[in-house]
Amino acid sequence: MLFFKKEHAKVVFSSDYIYGIPTSGEYQTFDILKYKKIRDTLIAKKVLKHRNILRPYPCSYDDLRLVHKEGYLKRIQDPQYVSQILKIDVVDLWDNYILEYYRAVTGGTLLATAYTLSCNLPVFNLGGGFHHAHPDKAEGFCLLNDIAIAIEKFRKKKRVNRIMIIDLDYHQGNGNILYFLEDQDVYTFSIHADTWVEVENLFNKDILIDALSDDKAYLDVLAKELEDSFKLFKPELVYFIDGSDTYEKDTLAGMKLTREGMLQRNLFVYEKVRNLNLPLVILAGGGYGPDSWQVYYDFIEYCLTNKVSANGRTQNCR
């Protein structure tokens, strides 16, 4: 892989990302093509070239076993079981395309992690952030926990030790919080308007915010609390779950952040992490409805066109 000096970030995407959860029944708010829309618009506007996209392989079962229990992995190879636990009305009982979608996106998170650790370039995965999944069960549209798998894989390789997860999805990332609850080398930071589990310890910052908060109120909380967390915990790698379901036009959640406020929020995190010269993986997280893709697109376009002021150093990567 080559390092392109013109870019301040990289993008991970695979055609397998478009074969996800059917947009029917409870999932009619999903726009499964939104990541393809982002990629296509970046290319159409000449912000990104095809050759500069990082294309992942699906996550292996050996990697899945780093987090998920064997019995669970066997069960989710049954498409009928997957349709039941994800509450999907229509599914091909002979085709594992939904499982393969999650494996593909998890492979993207692994590739993004490998690249940022090697090059110290921020990497956007056009998907991922499955923060509700547990080792032995799915929850909240999340079949696999891509971040936990990536953390375990690269700690096992001794590539990284201390990791921070910054989760700004509308919903609390309960899967990550519970999985890393006793792990002093992983710090989970979450601002959300929907709490799924009540926990508190030194390596967890859990902030419930009023769903009706406007841009200023939200950004004020983020600036103070994230600064305090970085003073407390010194990570070597950061995962940022950039949930766009806090956007005022989201069709499933109910927050009031404007499109401009969303970009300010995302750039605040980006610049904070990069000014500390830390490797950064950005994941899409939640986001629903026809306008969801625009929020993540704005963020990526801004970073790829070098408008950010972050001064993190990069390395030549081959």
Provide the fold topology:
Blueprint: E1 10-12, H1 34-44, E2 53-54, H2 61-64, H3 70-75, H4 79-85, H5 97-119, E3 123-125, H6 146-156, E4 163-167, H7 174-179, E5 186-192, E6 204-208, H8 215-232, E7 237-241, H9 259-275, E8 280-283, H10 292-304
Parallel strand pairs: 1-2, 1-3, 3-8, 4-5, 4-7, 5-6, 7-8
Helix pairs in contact: 1-10, 5-6, 8-9, 9-10
* CATH architectural label: 3-Layer(aba) Sandwich
CATH class reads Alpha Beta
Walk across the major sheet and give the strand order. Answer: 2-1-3-8-7-4-5-6
Strand elements, count: 8
Biggest sheet architecture: 8 strands, parallel
Estimated structural class: alpha/beta
Q: Could you tell me the CATH topology label.
A: Arginase, Chain A
**Gyration radius over CA:** 18 Å
Low-confidence stretches: 1-7, 310-314
Distance between the termini: 5 Å
Query: What does the average pLDDT come to?
Result: 89
Shape: globular
Care to describe what's here?
The chain is an alpha/beta fold. It has a single domain, classed as Arginase, Chain A (3-Layer(aba) Sandwich). The chain is built from ten helices and eight strands. It has helices at residues 34-44, 61-64, 70-75, 79-85, 97-119, 146-156, 174-179, 215-232, 259-275, 292-304; strands at residues 10-12, 53-54, 123-125, 163-167, 186-192, 204-208, 237-241, 280-283. An eight-stranded parallel beta sheet has the order 2-1-3-8-7-4-5-6, with helices on both faces. Strand 7, helix 9 (259-275) and strand 8 form a beta-alpha-beta unit. Helix 1 runs parallel beside helix 10 (292-304), helix 5 (97-119) packs across helix 6 and helix 9 (259-275) crosses helix 10 (292-304). The radius of gyration is 18 Å and the shape is globular.
